[in-house]
Amino acid sequence: MKVSKFSLGLLLAAFLFSSFNAVAAVPAAISALDKVLAPATTELKTKLDGATSDAGYKTLLAAANAIAAKITGGRLVITLQDGTVVLDTKGTKNTYANFSKKLVAENHNTRIAILNAQLQASGIGYETKYSTTDKTTENYLARRLGNFLNSSGTARLSVKQ
Question: Does the residue 15 lie in any domain?
Fold first, then answer.
């Protein structure tokens, strides 16, 4: 099967247009989450790296609570690179002892926004999903805390619609 240069060019143009369109189609709710989370990623990475004791963990938790509070109903989950949950601002098990034993929450390494933030070159992942448990839709925006394949973890900010 022979493909003309024109057909290849048309196919490439369609692909590029759809790729740019996908970026432009980020929901406003996701953009609002990013306006809060993006400026805080360096601080969160530094504090996550310092969460090696009870005092360091409490410093990270205070920063996470302050960031989540910037959005009404906001929730911030911080994970290690492997998906181990460090803290969840809506959780009840936020202690250094629970984090050390991996008891804060179940591993989040398969959560779409977190997985994409770890694997995408941009370090950003997002998702909107419906919960059959509480019958609500929630928007999630995650940012990798560090470099690709060498990050400290991921911060995921979310809010229910």
Answer: no
